[in-house]
Amino acid sequence: MMIQAQGLRKTFTTRSRKGTQTVEAVRGVDLDVAEGEIFGVLGPNGAGKTTTIRMLSTLIAPDAGTATIAGHDLLKEPAAVRRELGYVSQAGGVEDTTSPRAQIMMAARIHAMADPKRAAAEVLERFDLTEMADRPGRTLSGGQKRRVAIAIGLVHSPPLLFLDEPTTGLDPQNRANLWDRIRQLRDSGTSVLLSTHYLDEADALCDRLVIIDHGQVVAEGTPGELKREVSGDVITLRVDEPERAAGTLKPYARETRVDEDVLRVYVDDGEHALPALLRALEEQGLGLSSIALDRSTLDDVFLAKTGRTLRDAGAAT
Description:
It is a single chain. With about 325 residues, the chain is of the alpha/beta class. It folds into 2 domains: about 5-225, Rossmann fold; about 230-295, Alpha-Beta Plaits (2-Layer Sandwich). The chain is about 35% helix and about 30% strand. The strands form 3 sheets. Strands 6-7-8-3-9-10 form a 6-stranded mixed sheet, with helices on both faces. Strand 12 (about 255-260) and strand 13 (about 260-265) form a beta hairpin.
């Protein structure tokens, strides 16, 4: 395993005019990340994703728990852990006044690379940054800056890369481009621990993932396993009296959930279940304004585990 963590906890205490407030940011998180996989940490803003990554990357110390990173004890061998990983924060850390080449060479020197100039040239070429390598950072686009940030984190060729919300603020084209880069890292043998609140990102990229809410892991598995665990299909209806409709359709479903004016009905085989559901609604005189049949999503998993959707919890979809 590249990462084995058990019982990680972190509490922050803040002081203001209103007094002292204690926040349990992470409450007993366990993680097992295999070599050569993209492992996702999915959850809403404030769920504890960034705090978990900052603990595993030695930036802050856990209050409790243990972890082994690339064979090194997180608490006893922090310097050895840092040598084995690259870290890209949400902000990215690309300076406006300095060129990508200079910033990457500085990172290579910090990691005591034998030939910083050559190491920088190689990683610039790897991420198609050579043509803009000597421009000031402020002249780069958002997507280019994210690629530079990842190049800085990878200049010393670590076996493990931490990416904290890597595509926040990027347009769809740059997001897709960065996804391809992340897949290439996995295919080349680099293990990637990625935090995100984007459902499509976790579904498209992650070999396995955990869903975190309020500092705790509420679900773990591959995206496919988690969606199958909830149900094969979900039928979404806008119907008169959704609570009464839910009771009417309960015998035909594995589970029903009312989310404001939307009724979600989880079934094994949506195509064959639909006719029976429609007949039952008609017999009860319940008017139907719209209906949709979809495969379960990771948002459905989050809803099943927490009682609310990721959007309601403050995350993007």
